[in-house]
Structures are given as C-alpha cells and as structure tokens.
C-alpha cells in the first residue's frame, strides 16, 4: 500500500541541491548565456523600454522582492506590463468577483487580468517582459534555468517542497514554462520545480532552453 492510498500526504525527501562542481558549471553557463543575450539584444531592450514608457504612466521597470536560493529575498526585475498601483487594483477586482478569486487561488494568475496594459499584454504574450531578468542572472540572483521565482506571500504554497525550491537559484525559464505554463495550477508548478531539482543535469538545462525557444515563438500558455 502506498502513502496516497493509506491516506497520508506525500512528503518528498529533503533536496540536497547541486555539488560545488555542478554549481560552478551552471554558473559559468549562466554568465556566458546572459552576456551573449545582452549584447545581441540591446536594440530590443531599447525598443521595449521606449514602448512601455510612451504608452502608460509609470516606471519602465517593475521591481519586486522575490525569494531566491536558500530562502533569501532579492530584487526581481521585469519590464512593467501593468498599470500603476496594480496590487490595489488586483485586491479590489478579486473582492468584487468570486470567479476571479477562485481562479487566482488556483493558478495565481488571471486569464483576463484588468491590471495589464495593451503593450503589457503584448510583451507578456511574447515573453519580452522577462528580458531584464538577464540582469538578475548576471548579478547571481537567478539562473537561466530553475524554479520560477516565487513572491513572498507564495512561500506557504510550496509546503513540503520548499527545500527543493531553496536548493537552487530560481530561473528565467524552467520545467513549468515548457510543460504548460499558465495552463497548469500552482501546485503543479510546485511539483515541477521539485522534480527539476531532483533530476538536474546539464542536459536537462539544455533541453529546457531549447524547448523555451519554441514556447516563446508559439506563445503557448502565456497570459
């Protein structure tokens, strides 16, 4: 009889993270990849920044505290895709719509998010809003591939999988992004993060990066 049939919740073993050699190899890949992308895409950065600035009130960048490796918070960067005071707008919207609140509780996303600007909708669909995270990679806060960086109030959603999340640096892309993205529930995302840490290899990172290109080009699962 397995744990599920016996009525017990599955508790994964504590995540050990990467060895020193593996961590150094992964870090070297991160630096090389992020620098190459920065140099190749500087005109794209400028174009997106100008589009955000000229079409809506507010800063070009969205900066938020997220939780990184070992549970340490860090400053997370994206191109702003939402209106100013987006947190207040979200709270007000969820209070007025029970269906939206249920969707948010399940996915931590909304299919029709009233906070997103017209330009923001485009850069989200094409993942251009994620470009500033390459700076997070160069700073050492993030990796090219890893668990999606979670917000401070999402920590409890990881339950027994929290040690796996904290074992590695969060990533710009990961198993969640190439396995369904926003079509998955948050709990499915958590399980994929844990699976990634337990099965990490250079080959797995390479496969995820290759699949990410296809996902970005098709816009599969984006919101």
Description:
The chain has 223 residues and is mostly helical. It has helices at residues 20-40, 42-55, 86-96, 98-107, 118-125, 133-139, 162-167, 186-198, 202-218; strands at residues 61-67, 73-79, 143-145, 150-151, 171-173. The strands form 2 sheets. Strands 2-1-4 form a 3-stranded antiparallel β-sheet. Strands 3-5 form a two-stranded parallel sheet. Strand 1 and strand 2 form a beta hairpin. Helix 1 (20-40) crosses helix 6 (133-139), helix 2 packs antiparallel against helix 5 and helix 3 (86-96) packs across helix 4. Residues 1-13 have low confidence and may be disordered.
What keyword list fits this structure?
48% helix; 9 helices; two-stranded parallel ribbon; mainly alpha; disordered N terminus; globular; three-stranded antiparallel sheet
- Identify low-pLDDT runs: 1-13
**Radius of gyration from the CA trace?**
18 Å
Profile the largest sheet: 3 strands, antiparallel
Strand content: 5-15%
Gross morphology is globular
Structure classification: mainly alpha
- Main sheet: strand order: 2-1-4
Task: List SSEs in N-to-C order.
Answer: HHEEHHHHEEHEHH
- State the separation between the terminal residues, measured CA to CA: 41 Å
Q: Could you estimate the helical fraction of the residues in percent? A: 40-55%
- Oligomeric form of this entry? single chain
Counting H and I runs of at least 4 residues, what is the number of helices?
Answer: 9
Overall pLDDT metric? 85
Instruction: Tell me the total number of β-strands.
Output: 5
The number of domains is 2
């Amino acid at each position: 009889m397995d744990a599920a049939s016996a009525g017990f919740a599955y508790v994964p073993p504590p995540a050990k993270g990467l060895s020193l050699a593996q961590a150094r190899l992964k870090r070297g890949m991160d630096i090389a990849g992020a620098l190459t992308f920065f140099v190749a895409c500087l005109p794209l950065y400028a174009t997106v920044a100008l589009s955000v600035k000229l079409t809506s009130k507010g800063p070009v960048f969205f900066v938020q505290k997220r939780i990184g490796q070992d549970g340490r918070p860090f400053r997370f960067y994206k191109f702003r895709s939402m209106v100013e005071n987006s947190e207040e707008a979200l709270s007000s919207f969820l209070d007025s719509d029970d269906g939206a609140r249920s969707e948010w509780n399940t996915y931590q996303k909304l299919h029709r998010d009233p906070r997103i600007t017209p330009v923001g909708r485009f850069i989200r669909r094409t993942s251009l809003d994620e470009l500033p995270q390459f700076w997070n990679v160069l700073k050492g806060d993030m990796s090219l591939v890893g668990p999606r960086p979670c917000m401070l109030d999402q920590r409890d959603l990881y339950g027994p999988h929290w040690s796996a999340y904290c074992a590695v640096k969060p990533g710009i892309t990961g198993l969640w992004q190439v396995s369904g993205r926003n079509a998955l529930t948050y709990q499915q995302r958590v399980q994929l993060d844990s699976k990634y840490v337990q099965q990490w290899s250079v080959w797995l990172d390479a496969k995820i990066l290759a699949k990410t290109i296809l996902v970005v080009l098709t816009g599969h699962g984006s919101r």
